[in-house]
Design goal:
Distance between the termini: 56 Å
Order of helices and strands: HEEHHHHHHHHHHHHHHHHHHHHHHHH
Helix content: 55-70%
Number of helices: 25
Radius of gyration: 22 Å
Largest sheet: 2 strands, antiparallel
Strand order of the largest sheet: 1-2
Low-confidence stretches: 1-29
Shape: globular
Structural class: mainly alpha
Number of strands: 2
Strand content: under 5%
Oligomer: single chain
Length: 463
């Protein structure tokens, strides 16, 4: 069986740095290890079977692309030594010199250095600017974070939203970059979640909000996580604001818990279940399942089965199923090569009561995979046959959420087959209900995008 050496390097956000002993041959970057010997360890320990690393001619895809991640020496030492739910510990399979050597090799090869390129939760400002970045993802991650930290999230997000309006390095990695903007913004606000959230936007599937929560959790001690989770989104300013913003906080908490616990799904769900309100509990599970099925950091969770692409949705408690099934096609589609017809067939194999929800998930992914192109969404959703309505409904919700409004999604609804248009506008309404606090404002938002289907939009908005 292939080794999973280094598989979870990217998600070790809370481990204490391992000590680095002396006596080894120093590399050119003064890392405490022999990089030549480390390259040999990388080749013989099975690392290439999991990771891509140009310096080793490795093209593995099971774990994170190390050239993109740029893990630091200390992070590699920690993960290889201690392991995580996603990989075994190699403390007794490799000696200390081998671990140090492979860590030095990876860190030097990727430019990760001693501490590594900044992850969102561990963001620290430096002098990197957008002008320094020549298509390099890690550079953009740091530069946009710096912009948020020094000039504020509104400035950073405005530049970011301009960049993701067209294909390129920023648009292609927008969710992770948005994480960094959120984490940097929380640092700017000195850890105060409410003003950080108030200054954010939902650009690129709300990655900003996820990054805020990720940083808020990173230094919390394990035994304090339940209490910290209950407090995090209970700020009166958040509670009195739009439901959409509050949802992003609680949903982001689910993402943060998975990252904090090294993708321990049962533990993360248990913390969600201990939140103060049932609505918070359910919303939190959405973040857990999104992170489990489609990791922000390129990690394959152990709570997935190649032999059953519906898992874990068909195995979790009934109260947890809704958000799992709303995310499940993000697991299915990459495995079937983004063949939407094959994904639709698998949706029909869901538990009977959850087939429609799986097709709503398919619509959400149709929206994302097409970059919100209405014609392409309808093409993808047509593979659902008699379930196409649920797919279009899910796509309309995703577009409305991504743009924090219904105008873009209304184009999809108007292009949809006549029999599906009302359902589509109802989907928009469900998101508008969270964006606007009063019934009057919700009705006005629906009136702005449709007159024919205003009533169903208003109904979806709960007005």
């Amino acid at each position: 069986m292939r080794s999973r050496l280094l598989l979870a390097v990217l998600v070790a956000l809370t481990l204490t740095a391992a000590g680095c002993g002396g006596g080894e041959k120093a590399s050119d970057t003064n890392l405490p290890g022999d990089t030549a010997k480390g390259k040999q360890v990388f080749a013989t320990a099975g690392c290439a079977g999991c990771h891509t690393l140009r310096a080793a001619n490795a093209t593995g895809t099971q774990g994170p692309n190390l050239d993109t991640v740029g893990p630091g020496y200390r992070r590699v030492v920690e993960q290889v030594t201690k392991g995580s739910p996603a990989m075994p510990s190699f403390e007794f399979k490799l000696d200390k010199d081998q671990i140090r050597n492979v860590a030095a090799f990876v860190a030097e090869s990727t430019g990760g250095g001693l501490k590594g390129q900044p992850l969102a939760g561990k963001f620290k400002p430096d002098d990197t600017t957008l002008a320094d970045c020549k298509g390099d993802f890690a550079c953009f991650e740091q530069a946009y974070g710096n912009l948020a930290y020094y000039e504020g999230p509104k400035v950073a997000l405005a530049r970011f939203e301009q960049a993701i309006a067209k294909p390129g390095a920023v648009e292609g990695n927008c969710h992770r970059i948005a994480h960094s903007i959120g984490a940097a913004s929380l640092a700017r606000f000195k850890g105060n979640v409410a003003p950080a959230f108030a200054a954010g936007t939902a650009a690129c599937w709300s990655g900003y909000y996820h990054g805020v929560v990720e940083r808020a959790l990173v230094d919390v001690k394990p035994d304090q996580i339940p209490q910290a989770a209950r407090r995090m989104c209970d700020d009166p300013d958040l509670r009195s604001g739009p439901t959409f913003t509050l949802y992003q906080c609680v949903h982001g908490l689910g993402h943060g818990l998975m990252i904090y616990t090294h993708y321990d799904m049962p533990r993360s769900l248990k913390v969600c279940d201990a939140l103060n309100r049932s609505w918070d509990q359910t919303s939190c599970t959405g973040g857990v399942f999104m992170e489990n099925l489609s990791s922000s950091y390129g990690v394959k969770s152990k709570w997935l089965k190649d032999s059953d692409l519906i898992y874990p949705c068909n195995a979790v408690a009934e109260r947890h199923k809704i958000y799992c099934y709303l995310m499940v096609t993000s697991r299915i589609l990459p495995v079937v090569g983004y063949d939407f017809a094959k994904a639709a067939k698998l949706c029909r194999k869901s538990e009977k009561a959850w087939v429609a929800t799986c097709f709503q998930s398919l619509g959400r992914d149709a929206s994302g995979h097409s970059r919100q192109n209405p014609n392409t969404i309808l093409k993808y959703c047509s593979t659902g046959g008699n379930m196409m309505g649920d797919c279009v409904y899910g796509a309309a919700r995703d577009m409305s959420s991504n743009y924090a409004g219904g105008e873009e999604a209304s184009v999809l609804c108007k292009k949809a087959p006549k029999a599906l248009q009302a359902r589509c506008f109802e989907g928009i309404g469900t998101i508008l209900g969270g964006l606007y606090q009063t019934s009057e404002a919700r009705r006005a938002a629906c009136s702005k995008i449709t007159s024919e289907y205003r009533a169903v939009c208003v109904r979806g908005a709960g007005a």
